[in-house]
Structures are given as C-alpha cells and as structure tokens.
Amino acid sequence: MAKWMKALLGVALSLAIFAGVAAMVYDMHPLGGGSEAYARQRACLERLQYSETPTSACYDAYRRESEAVDWNERLVSAGAGLVAVALFWFLLNLLYLRPRRRRSEAEPAAV
Q: In b/e form, how buried is each residue of 9-18, taking b as 16+ CB within 10 angstroms?
C-alpha cells in the first residue's frame, strides 16, 4: 500500500474517532444536567411563558449562562475527542507497530 494511502487512512480514522467521541461526550451534557442554576433558569423560562414581556433580565441571564455552559461543553467534548485519538495512536504504536518492527528486525535478512 502506498504511503499516501496509509496517511489518508490514518487521517480519516483519526477524524472518525474524534468526531464520534466528541459527539458522544457532547450529547451526555457533562456540565449542565443537575445543577441548581440550571433548575433556576428552567423555572425562569416557565415564568416567562406566562409573562407579557418577552424580554426580561431573567431570560437574558438564562441565555448568557446557557451559552457559556454550551461553549464549555463543546470544549470538554473536543478535549475528550483529542484524548481518544491520542490514546488510539499510542496503543496502536505500543501494541502493534513496535512489536512488528522488532520482529522484522530480529529476522535474518534473506539473501
């Protein structure tokens, strides 16, 4: 197999691992599930449904905090994706590539 093909497969595999892990972590909502602030914001939104004014300080605070939590969750999921890719390549090198290289070096050269 050509070297460029191996590199292309490596990049595609890395992107797939990164995207899969990042999406899984982001869908788990690691930062915003059960906090008290989240419950207060939810109550604020429920009160806003019955309010006559569509914009209020409560709603603006909710949006600011939810956007901050969303951004932090994206950063956490991107970090988890990068760690997963690094772990994959580390284990591939440790368990497959190094032993294969050692075996090929240990074999006598056929003349």
A: eeeeebeebb
